[in-house]
Amino acid sequence: MIMPEDSKTHMWGDKPYYSLNHYFQTVYGEKIYKIALDGGMTCPVRDGSLDTRGCIFCSQGGSGEFAVPVYGSGDETPDIASQLTEGKAFIRSKYNGGRYLAYFQPYTNTYAPSDRLRALYTAALEDTETAGISIGTRPDCLPDDVIALLSELKRSYPDKFIWIELGLQTIHRESIRYIRRGYDNSVFESAVMKLHDAGIPVIVHVILGLPGESKEQMLQTIEYINTFPVFGIKLQLLHVLAGTDLADDFSARKFDVLSKTEYIDILISCIEHLSPDIVIHRLTGDGPRDILIAPGWSTDKKAVLNGLLKEMKARGSYQGKNI
Questions:
Q1: How far is residue 323's CA from residue 318's CA, in Å, rounded to a whole number?
Q2: What angle do CA 40, 45, 46 make, to 5 degrees?
Q3: Is residue 189 classed exposed, middle or buried when 0-12, 13-18 and 19+ CB atoms within 10 A define those classes?
Q4: 122 class by beta-carbon count within 10 Å (0-12 exposed, 13-18 middle, 19+ buried)
Q5: pLDDT single digits (tens) 94-137
Q6: Per the confidence metrics, is the pTM higher than 0.85?
């Protein structure tokens, strides 16, 4: 656990919250860049196991528009090495580079036979410039053989991290039904504890601004997460994306999206209620511009983060202040 360098100032480096960049700088001594990978998966709320429509907010790309696209899927094994090479080239065209986090992003990245998963994960871990992998999935798609595989890979690659990202989004029953999440909170709880027992760090995804949820309800989700052995959190602004059922509801004026002022206010409250040993991996989100319907202000991510820091400073706010 990396706590503030100065407990009196409640700062993690230059931020009043425990950022992923601060974690990387403290643990690895360098910035680590993310490369989004497509493992060619599907999802039980798309393939008919639970539903065929997907989660109400999820795009046709499975929320993986920033991943290097797969050419062929199904029973084929996507060329992870080529995707990494392409991702590195893109990053190096903008930055000086360093080591990389290989992020299996679109759809449900444990939703395949363990032998196929082994090939995908190993291809990323074998890359000498990869610091580790992060695997986006659902808590109801983590059978015992997959957790055993993750434990095996953790032993085989002791110098690299292996993280699991779970899409919780909310703990509230009405919202769970509305977004078509497809599993109960008890399933999340069981998955977190199994992963914890296996020594696999967990990152939890939460959506802020779901239709019908109050600020108090969003804070209840944060407080719930605090009760589990969670390594990290991604706080995601609700985006309305073209081609989703959420977009249809938005067009029908069934709900409004948050303004930037509202979002920053809620975000600060979430940070203040978040345990100070949980690493914040995301504070807003990146809705693809070509399919983003609302909110338009979210495309200026830098302005959102700068506005957050300015307001936190004005309030004397910091992570864990209201625990």
A1: 11
A2: 50
A3: middle
A4: middle
A5: 887 689 999 999 999 999 999 999 999 999 999 999 999 999 99
A6: yes
